[in-house]
């Protein structure tokens, strides 16, 4: 490979280019910092990325760089959120599974790909599986691929390999994936996790995320048998169940015996465990999030979250009113795919109130809020007060069910709203 400094590497970026940055736990910060140092000589460089866990403001997210760099992300993460909210960037709404196809067809052109990869193997292949999601397709179509190459990046298998000959410039460094450690679930998270775990059958194939509620669900299914994994994020929680034999992938129809994911986020110990581990494979989201592929696994179960839900079952998960907070991510892909699976189930898990005490079950969505999962798709909804199944209920019955798992102090106002909205069809249920 052509090993150079970060500043030399990013000299390949031109004004007017679109740069796609790898995300997840392997954001190419060294390259981003070097690119930001070129702000005076560059104009109209668009920077896009998917989900990432880098919390410090991205180096290019400064108001004074507004004519040099425009953020146009697939998923707004913490490092870009304030910059976009201030009007210096935007978000392109796409189902995550669609993004690689958009790149390949040129509907979302990519000129340069910034990646973080492992050292090459004996055949010259580096692994970018630590965050394979959208970067595989970006690196495939880009005019220029610039890599941070580090011995601390795990070598993972699947379709997440890139040959060193494809890399235009490489920066040899010692960066490591962002290490994330989660404590024990809270009382509220544990209650939600227990309700969901009670509905997950033996032999289920899981899509599960990162954080307290997913960990609580995993705690609740530690005595289950023959679970499978086909998900976006590989985490410490699922690794624990794999080591204990709870997740053995024995009943999966797609990749039996193998855990499938699009990225990995967790502790240093997890990154060490997954390195050169043949029991798991990492693929781009056009594959992992393909609803029709997800549906081929029996008892596929998707567990997702929400910012708020209205009394008809509409799920907002991407915005706080008109303020874009994130994006659709893979929620729709897995909610739809699991609904098509034989014996499949989908869950929305959330506390009844926010940390600031605001109700998350509301009469109507906040004006400007986006609908990520429609009322026609919502199945199970769980809070710390219970779990309800909405899919076979009319609107009035849905309202009654959701009110039953709302925070007790919010229920009276929700009942008044339901009476006004649904009239006698709701009153007769009381």
Structural description of this entry:
With 430 residues, the chain is α/β, with parallel strands linked by helices. The protein folds into 2 domains: 6-172, 3-Layer(aba) Sandwich (Glutaconate Coenzyme A-transferase); 187-427, Glutaconate Coenzyme A-transferase, CATH 3.40.1080.20. The protein is built from 15 helices and 24 strands. It has helices at residues 6-9, 29-36, 78-85, 99-105, 135-141, 187-197, 212-220, 236-243, 268-274, 285-288, 291-294, 331-340, 395-404, 411-422, 424-427; strands at residues 18-21, 45-49, 69-73, 89-91, 112-117, 125-127, 144-149, 161-163, 169-172, 205-207, 228-229, 233-234, 259-261, 263-264, 280-282, 300-304, 308-310, 315-316, 319-320, 323-324, 345-349, 361-362, 380-383, 386-389. A 7-stranded parallel beta sheet has the order 4-3-2-1-5-7-9. The protein has a 6-stranded mixed beta sheet with strand order 11-10-16-21-23-24, sandwiched between helices. Helix 7 (212-220) links the parallel strand 10 and strand 11. It is globular.
Q: Gap between N and C termini, in Å?
A: 71 Å
Shape: globular
Overall mean pLDDT score?
95
Q: What is the CATH T-level topology of the largest domain?
A: Glutaconate Coenzyme A-transferase
Number of strands: 24
CATH class of the largest domain: Alpha Beta
Please give the domain count.
Answer: 2
Q: Quick one: biggest sheet?
A: 7 strands, parallel
**How are the strands ordered across the major sheet?**
4-3-2-1-5-7-9
pLDDT < 50 runs, ≥5 residues:
none
Number of helices: 15
CATH homologous superfamily of the largest domain, by name?
Answer: Acetyl-CoA hydrolase/transferase C-terminal domain
Give the fraction of residues assigned to helices.
25-40%
Quaternary structure state of the chains depicted = single chain
Strand content: 15-25%
Structural class: alpha/beta
Gyration radius, in Å:
22 Å
Which architecture of the largest domain would the CATH scheme give at its second level?
A: 3-Layer(aba) Sandwich
